[in-house]
Amino acid sequence: MFSDPDTFPDMLAELRDHFDRGLTRSLQWRREQLSAISRMLEENEARVSDALAEDLGKPQQEVLLGETALIFSEVEHARKRLKRWTKARRVPTPMVGKPGRSWVQPEPFGVVLIIGAWNYPIQLLLSPLIPAIAAGNCAVLKPSEVAVATSKLLAELVPQYLDERAVRVVEGAVEETTELLKQRFDHIFYTGSSAVGKIVMRAAAEHLTPVTLELGGKSPCVIDAGADIESAARRLIWGKCLNAGQTCIAPDYVLVRPADRDRLIGAIEHELFEMYGADRLGSSDYCKIINRRHFDRLRPLIDSGRVVIGGRVDETRCRIEPTVLTEVAPDSALMQEEIFGPILPIMEVDDLEAAIAFIREREKPLSAYLFTRSGESERRFSEAVSTGNLCINDTLMFMSVPELPFGGVGNSGMGQYHGKAGFDRLSHLKAVMKRGLFPEIPVRFPPYSKLKMRLLKWVS
């Protein structure tokens, strides 16, 4: 583990030297490292669960659902397809390039910096590491210091399982991250807030380093006329309450017709009782807020509307029960930034077109959700709403599909990963052309003539 900023230049020099010597190039090495990621989590399942319980109060099932199962799936997916992904990709060569062949050759960038997030501190650090290794890169991992126990565990385990010549862990807070960003990396992968994303991008610009930013935003959920309200309530509130709402793709607010609002609220109340019982603050199946600072940020937001479900808090344990609000003003504090907590505003709109207009007036979200029985509504919403990810008749579940690229658009991020999209994102796709020596076609060489011009127009 390297946490002293004075050691960062030497650490980068060592990683780059190992990369230049070809350590990470072989497919065998890449497969071994990918397998080691899964083995690390499997062999330390109890310790991982304990760390996440300490940081976020995560029950074991949420550790599996939101953290480790996704890693196992992505590792297996990448291992099986690694040979295919790394192959040269032939492209057609036009007449003007004959005789010749053309192809795209994926090659690793070099040394990648991966800055994780605290809300899913295992998944959001290791998930980008999978394509980084699959693409043949070295990596520096910066776990979030906010998830203290998990950061400490990763700093201990990663050197035990992964090749320390190629993968290093740096612990620390703002000072260490700031110093890391002063170094020259070949790619930076950051997951977190838009505000910090801008800082990362400015730092990367000093070295013209490409970045992948997975940010967030206010992900809308629309309940269309005629939707299955009971199913929508169950899947909506599950997506909102997972990790106590501390999920970048959680439904941030709901848009529903006035005629359906009260029925939706009643269905949500029923589902919350089924999931967490009467004492939701005390439920062992419900997470806590990460720390007091975030608890203090969330608590005043409850006053942004009329509480129709929940509203209770437990300061000593940093818990806020699932809370549903109505009568929320569009310009209220609750609607200005991503909530990132278990508070769900329900807002009324006349119809689907009004919902689309409401969403389009705001920054592009990381995710959007539509519950509908109408194919026409599905088509209209898909075409009209620009979002990083779209899920119809459920929430969050697109994350379970390894080949669906995940990433934001506009203010919610740039660049996509998971599956082949992640491999391509963390590879340089080098364009290659090989020319034949014979026959030589002199039409492109001076001296020029009208005949050559006609021939060039014909072959171009």
Structure description:
The protein is globular. It folds into two domains: 235 residues, 3-Layer(aba) Sandwich (Aldehyde Dehydrogenase, Chain A, domain 1), CATH 3.40.605; 181 residues, Aldehyde Dehydrogenase, Chain A, domain 2. 42% of the residues lie in helices and 17% in strands. The chain is α/β, with parallel strands linked by helices and 460 residues long. The mean pLDDT is 96. The relative contact order is 0.13. A seven-stranded mixed β-sheet has the order 10-13-14-9-8-15-16, sandwiched between helices. Strand 4, helix 6 and strand 5 form a beta-alpha-beta unit.
Widest β-sheet, arrangement of strands = 10-13-14-9-8-15-16
Oligomer: single chain
Tell me the radius of gyration.
25 Å
How many beta-strand elements?
18
The main sheet comes to:
7 strands, mixed
Number of helices: 15
CATH architecture field of the largest domain: 3-Layer(aba) Sandwich
Helicity, in percent?
A: 40-55%
Question: What is the strand content?
Answer: 15-25%
What number is the mean pLDDT? 96
Give the number of domains.
2
Give me the secondary-structure category.
Answer: alpha/beta
CA distance, first residue to last residue: 56 Å
CATH topology-level fold name of the largest domain: Aldehyde Dehydrogenase, Chain A, domain 1
Q: What's the CATH first level of the largest domain?
A: Alpha Beta
